[in-house]
Specification:
2 domains, seven-stranded mixed sheet, single chain, about 425 residues, globular, binds 4'-deoxy-4'-aminopyridoxal-5'-phosphate, 14 helices, Aspartate Aminotransferase, domain 2, Aspartate Aminotransferase, domain 1, alpha/beta
């Protein structure tokens, strides 16, 4: 007789009220209304566990790392390196040598452009996409200006997706790097990055994925994605500002020159020359954001405690509800309608300027982002000056979505 298959215990659905109590900032009123914070793609709010981890670090452990032998220095180093190990596990990197702390996704991309970019020559090509955040355009544009390389662009569609019809033509023998966004901050589109990695790797071209909008919302596994670089920011995944991560494949990082130079990134220094430190310290010159790393480690613990699968499922429910609710608003068009999306709802309303709408919504206690969302090329493609964007997190509620819809109706009355 064969044994019955073992059942994995099901995790009950999230207790949203309890989760909301973890986020002190959500308990307030704005303009006399309970705050409905729907601007999570810009930055997400912090659970008390993160705030307390940062505060505890400064109250109990603060010291510089990797240097002194005293007790506090030991504790600070253990906290910082412990956070690196948590991040390694979180993205399933093969080694903590592949996890470099930066100020954020922007600095991580600039690091790769400055360091890996030194191998570029005139005639080489960098391939990005039309959906990119400015952080994944401008560093490459500047690198191309410095080196005579050319920036090429994967086109987008009217639905806010990548048009990959000519991918194999765009990736060619001159391409030196492909750098694309995993999840779009404007439209929420989850891009088929595995396909891009496969096409690039067929020509042995490395791929950077901008995961700033991916890590807060679903499990990310850099080994199964197969990318060579992966960048993200702590503050979008419930951690502090000023801390982020560059994941880089060890064999590739080993071939790259330092980004910044100074203390901690060296092994020996004399006036004749300098021997650089091993990975990942070689890319972390000077005293890093130790408290930020500790806070990011606490954010990872928090996310894993709630469960990324449950977060993703909850946000898909909010997305489905929000999509339906917004479609019922007269004159409103959702911008970005890919079948695979994170919980980002960008929209325009006939005869209403997004900026005016943002102000009226704020007076109803509803926080959204309006404008070009640091993605001007995507806006230009769609012929829009900007959109209004509600970006949802698992702590948001269906009632908050209803309040957005009500506030939009009110804005129409006022502006109409
Ligand atoms: N890429 C994407 C897709 C983003 O949404 C953002 C932040 N809006 C960035 C990069 C830059 O992140 P940061 O400002 O934290 O460096």
């Amino acid at each position: 007789m064969t044994a019955a298959p073992e059942r994995r215990p099901e995790r009950p659905a999230l207790d949203i009220e309890a989760i909301r109590r973890d986020f002190p900032i959500l308990q307030q009123q704005v303009h006399g209304q309970p705050l409905a914070y729907l601007d999570n793609a810009a930055t997400s709010q912090k659970p008390a566990a993160v705030i307390e981890a940062v505060s505890r670090y400064y109250r109990e452990d603060n010291a510089n790392i990797h240097r002194a032998v005293h007790t506090l220095a030991d504790r600070a180093t253990a906290a910082y390196e412990g956070a690196r190990e948590k991040v390694r596990r979180f993205i399933n990197a093969g080694s903590s040598r592949e996890v470099v702390f930066t100020r954020g996704a922007t600095e991580a991309i600039n690091l790769v452009a400055a360091s890996f970019g030194q191998r570029l020559r005139e005639g080489d090509e960098i391939l990005v996409s039309h959906l990119e955040h400015h952080a994944n355009i401008v560093p490459w544009q500047q690198l191309c200006e410095r080196t005579g390389a050319t920036l090429r662009v994967i086109p987008m569609t009217a639905t806010g997706e990548l048009d990959l019809a000519d991918l194999d033509g765009l990736i060619n023998e001159r391409t030196r790097l492909v750098s694309v966004v995993h999840v779009s901050n404007v439209f929420g589109t989850i891009n088929p990055v595995e396909r891009i990695v496969e096409a690039a790797h067929a020509r042995e071209i490395p791929v950077l994925l901008d995961g700033a909008q991916a890590t807060p919302h679903a499990p990310v596994d850099v080994q199964s994605l197969g990318c060579d670089f992966y960048v993200f920011s702590g503050h979008k995944m419930y951690g502090p500002t000023g801390i982020g991560v560059l994941y880089g494949r060890e064999a590739l990082l080993e071939t790259m020159p330092p980004y910044q130079t100074g203390g901690d990134m060296i092994r020996t220094v004399s006036f004749e020359g300098t021997e650089f430190n091993e990975l990942p310290f070689r890319f972390e010159a000077g005293t890093p954001n130790i408290a930020g790393a500790v806070g990011l480690g606490a954010a990872v613990d928090y996310l894993e405690g709630v469960g990324l699968e449950r977060i993703a499922a909850r946000e898909q429910e909010l997305l489905a509800y929000g999509t339906q609710a917004l479609e019922s608003v007269e004159g409103l068009s959702i911008v970005g309608t890919a079948p695979r999306k994170a919980a980002v709802l960008s929209f325009v309303v006939e005869d209403m300027h997004p900026g005016d709408m943002g102000t009226i919504l704020d007076h109803q206690g509803v926080a959204v982002r309006t404008g070009h969302h640091c993605a001007m090329p995507a806006m230009q493609f769609l012929g829009l000056p900007g959109t209004t964007r509600a970006s949802l997190a698992f702590y948001n509620t269906f009632e908050e979505v209803d309040r957005l819809v009500k506030a939009l109706a009110f804005a129409r009355e006022v502006l109409g």
